[in-house]
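Handoff note, outgoing to incoming analyst
You'll be picking up this chain. Sequence as last confirmed:
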Amino acid sequence: MEHRITVIVCLAALISACNGTEQEKGGEGAAEGSLAWIEQRIVEHPGDADYFAMRARYYEALDSARLAEDDWRRTIALDSSDAHWRIALGDLYFRKLRLADAEQRFQEAIALSDTFTEARSKLSEVYLVQSRFKEAMIVANDALRLDPLDGSLYNLKGWIHRQAGDTDLAISSYQTAIEREPDLYDAYISLGMLHAARNNDLALDYYDGALSVRPNSVEAHYNKAMYAQEHGRDSLALALYARIKEIDPGYPAPYYNTGYILLEHEKRVADARREFNLAIERMPDYAQAYYSRGVTYELENKLDSALEDYKLAIGLSPQHTEAALGLSRLEKRGLKVKVR
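Most recent structure output, in case you need it:
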């Protein structure tokens, strides 16, 4: 299409155009990429599918699914031979969990371009979400026959095997994925999680692989820290939690987990309480942090403060067994325990 490059360039401006004070009524004077600019192009080129596709993307950025769907349909009507438009509409349906509609669009795209792996990959994902594992694998393998070097397709096969419960084959597929494409972050994370579930230290290596691709990944740092914590490597875990705090200071979990290690493993009660306080500052409804802070008060015989924290934990999480047991302990020590 003659305007394909223009479309790609202009799509980058859509989100900022959605949020700005655009000249929506300005036609020719509107900012490039704004809705008014796109609609002026549509008026000037009513037979050009690319501009309808651009407006569909604009509406998707606003989460206006119905308007986006209408424009994708217009795009397909104007240029019915381009499989990309059907994939785009299928993607919209997939995000809205209209899986039957998504399946139909992806199948139509495959029929239009028999050597097109993207449509097959997306159709396989539709089947995977529906737990139609056999069909998902057949379509993924069809795509691999077209492009046997595509690591993302092996990553997809890993997900299918994993969801179907075959972790050995999942691991094999993920390993092949990173052999084909060494920068596949998701495959490293999946391998780390699968090996962590087996208490295999290879998990640490795969999390390191993920960090080599995304050095500031909170997910990879946290997964690695949890594995270290659960396997007696407190120094490594604490260092990783400290790094997460630098990357994302507002994330409460590394503060809580640091406090847990300080309390349970190192008996540094006051230091642990400081970390629980920081976790609560970041997430005021963090029931487990209130409970653990209550434990620090109980250990220091500050029983009224412990009582208040246990009550807060149960107020936020009525089935919090540990907090209920804490209240029971305090009641045996003579405190009047009454949970509102």
